[in-house]
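Reviewers of the previous submission asked for a worked example of the structure-prediction workflow described in the proposal, so we include one complete record here. The input consisted solely of the amino acid sequence. No template or homolog information was supplied to the procedure at any stage.
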Amino acid sequence: QVQLVESGGELVQAGGSLRLSCVISGRASSIVRVGWFRQAPGKERTFVGRTWWSGTNTVYADSVKGRFTISRDNTKNAMYLQMNSLKSEDTAVYYCAATITGRSLAGFATVAGYDYWGPGTQVTVTS
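From that input alone, the workflow returned the following structure tokens.
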């Protein structure tokens, strides 16, 4: 079992920055991929970005490319999402997620591509 908990979401003005954290506990050694998703009110959960738990290749959604950065600290079993130049359309609940070994690595940009999820943290960007 793997548990994930996000933190760092808050109210911020457009143009500002936030750093979200995702702390992972349990069998972190079984994780191969971690990602961030977000869900705006009344909309589906959508892909923000993903990285390999033991690698450096990172992929972002076009909507956040150049503004958001994913990083990891494996010594702390933590992952981060640095969000800069925030826009009102970035308002959503942000979720971190993990894929474990033995599962298909297809669908990295889909909800089905991840096995474990955190409860989410609310980010609200005011204009």
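The mean pLDDT is 95. We consider this example representative of the routine output the project will generate in years two and three.
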